[in-house]
Amino acid sequence: MDVFAGRKRRREFKMILRVTELNKNLVKNIIKWDKRFLDLAEHISQWSKDPSTQVGAVIADKDNRIVSVGYNGFPKGVNDDEERYEDREQKYSLIVHAEINAILFAQKGLKNTTLYTWPLPPCERCAGFIIQSGLETVVSIDLFSDKEGKTTDRGYRWGESFEIAQKMFQESSVNMRIYEASVWQGL
Ligand SMILES: [Zn+2]
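A: This is the predicted complex of the input protein with zinc ion.
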């Protein structure tokens, strides 16, 4: 018998919170700031030149002060012409994800800070950097399935990567709040 099973489950629930229509009252005190920073991340995502997936990230501290922002793009000075973005394979090897840019541009330590990403939660590649940087919490939206629960294109492309990232966050005790699409759209 796994004596830790019950304890582990409770711990996981605390670490990863899926915000649904049924439990959204649990986060009513923080929903206002989650919405503000996710809206800001959405705005920042528009600065990305990637024609297919534009992602924005915001890092804020405990007092809701913005510590850093980032969006996905090629490293500074690297030729980011449109043709390079069109070549998917080349794009994936050159691009720096929004979360990493936000972590790198931060001017102070990231202990006890929160990362907000729009429109996707972090991938497994970024998860390692997020954990190592000392970030406490990740907030994002689950747009991997639609209102009927059907997997979206985005879900097919990024779903597995997100599952791995989520597991890594659980194991390393990074908190996560993930809004279901229907809750997010109603905010
Ligand atoms: Zn990533």
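Residues 7-13 have pLDDT under 50 and may be disordered. The helical segments are 5-15, 31-45, 82-86, 88-94, 98-105, 124-133, 153-171, 181-186.
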